[in-house]
Specification:
2 copies of one chain form a homodimer. By secondary structure, the first copy, chain A, is an alpha/beta fold. Chain A contains 7 helices and 6 strands.
Chain lengths: 191, 191
């Protein structure tokens, strides 16, 4: 009752072997997380969302995440949450922004839902780069983005977190459509 | 890199042995989570927050959580997140509101931050009962509540989730003060 384990799908290993572990260009970082997302859809291991944490200056890949809510029986197991939690475990610190660390960037296939936005604020992440917009996610898939604030971007900026949105947005939208075309489960049923 | 484990403190075992596992009265449920919170402070195992998931009708305790952010190297390891994730693991389902389950209530020592509010919306929880208010948490401890929306309660109610706040609020405030008096770490440094 007092311990829980969360895992990414088994194919992550081979995926990472087939991709570089240092990526500098932000567009290439977004392509990487969209590839990750596409694989999660094709393998039918979760929802159409992928994320990764990179060191800002070196471009070094620190962690990845995909949505594994259904597979892991955990409504918190969004791609961004998995990537952030795995990065923190890897660095053995709850704060990726601690003084002795390089700056970290979260790159994500779709702008964060309310839960993931909150955790970005707690995680010590310094930059967030995203592809699809909340209205893409809600409009194409029907997933709910949750109780996000009106002043989404300034909530991040006020906490010293840079946000860049709509990177390769049409590709980001196409991935969401791929999920729908494959009959992917829209598991969020509160509305 | 692809698996993570999160645990509650070891004293949880003895705590649960010393308390009933069926509690009907909402005030008594809040007292239970405040006791849990106090223990987390006195044991110095985390921040001043405790939560539990109960079955609404039977009063049966399903899971508990305390804040273990620092101890577990995980900014997402808030009390509410731990309780929700552990309840979902126990029931082997990401949705505590699935048709074949009884209704579930989250009881928490302080009203949820932005992240936990988001996960409540995804979790399938039908009711949230809380003690201290966000301004108590921010005013007494200095912890940031994050990017919550202006229309906090209606965001829940619109999703069919009942929220009852300020239950034993003065006791809830006293627990936050206890943490400060014990020199507890205010680890959230984004502002």
């Amino acid at each position: 009752m007092y311990e829980l384990k969360l895992s990414l799908p088994k194919w992550i290993d081979s995926f990472l072997n087939d991709h570089p572990n240092v990526i500098h260009d932000p567009e290439k970082q977004v392509r990487f997380v969209l590839d990750l997302t596409e694989r999660n859809i094709l393998e039918k291991t979760g929802g159409p969302f992928g994320s990764a944490v990179f060191e800002v200056d070196s471009g070094k890949l620190v962690s990845v995440g995909v949505n594994v809510v259904v597979q892991q029986n955990c409504s918190a197991a969004h791609a961004e949450m998995m990537a952030l939690m795995l990065a923190q475990k890897k660095l053995s610190h709850f704060n990726l922004g601690a003084k002795h660390f390089p700056n970290h960037r979260l790159v994500t296939s779709g702008r964060m839902c309310a839960m993931c936005l909150g955790n970005v604020c707690w995680s010590g992440i310094k930059e967030v780069f995203s592809s699809a917009e909340p209205e893409d996610v809600e409009g194409i898939t029907g997933f709910d983005e949750g109780p996000t604030p009106q002043d989404y971007n300034s909530q991040l900026e006020d906490r010293g977190i840079k946000i860049v949105t709509k990177i390769l947005r049409s590709e980001g939208r196409a991935i969401l459509q791929l999920y729908v075309d494959h009959g992917g489960q829209i598991y969020n049923g509160t509305r």
